[in-house]
# Entry
Amino acid sequence: MSETTEISVIEIKPEQAPALYIPNGLESYFEHIKASVSEAPDLSTKKGRDRVASLATQVSRSKTAVEKPGREYLKRLKEAVRPAEQEIKRFVDACDALRDETRKPLTEWEAEQDRIAAEKAAEEERLRIEAEQLAAAEVQRKQKEADHELALLLNIQHDRDAADKAAEKERQRIAHEEEIKRQAVEQARIDAEENIKREREESAQREAALKLKADQEEQAKIEVQQAAEREKKEAAEKVERDKKEAQERAEREKQDAIAEEQRKQQEAEQRRLAEEKRIKDEADKRAANVAHRKKISAAVIAGLTQHAGLSKEQAIETVKALIAGQIPHTSIQY
# Structure
């Protein structure tokens, strides 16, 4: 490459961004810039040293031309992500509320079952106490009867002994039967209490599992939010770094940018003048063509009025029909 070669101006349009700002998507631009500065100027001369500085400046300018639209594209991507984050949060909150509302009938049902079980246990305890009281009253009644019989048989020792034995046997039988009843009632009470305890433990386990799941979901949500905050902080720090770098680049490239802008303005002015000339040339051409067509049409009208015996109005209508192609096998050559 000769020392007069300049890096061509790089321009990236917004619609190109999705295809370029991907892994290795800018490699061709880098290779182009690299190839454009591959010369080796003579550093022993001022011209050579100036050339090296100029090449470095051109690399910076080309870098900016690629980086700036990339930053704009990245900004648009982040703006596009923000509604998704907000929608995800709204969706998660709505699902949490729906979960609680969905489980509400079950929670109320479980509470009602606990209340019913407690009332049932209390009723069984009341029945057990009444049964024990009835059994004790029956024992007392039978004991009184036995005592009465014994009082009647005090004079007869044998009968008294027999009555005592019979009464004792009956008392023991009744006591045994009452003990069996008491044990049955007690066992029923114990079974009811164990059932209530088991149901409460199962309910507590379900609640604990649901709470653990909710805590895990909440922790996951917190971690997502923290990750988003970290990304936001990192992005802000990077924006600050980029801003500082941009300010430094702007200071270094200020004069180059002014010269580049002047060149672009000159090119734009040249394009504007060329466009104005093209428009004027086309307008002149159209005007000349209109004048020519008018001249030919006037000559035809004059010929029709002079040689065909038509009035001027008839001649004009005839020319119009010829121009419109309404008369077969005839035409006007302009």
Summary: The radius of gyration is 55 Å. The chain has five helices and no strands.
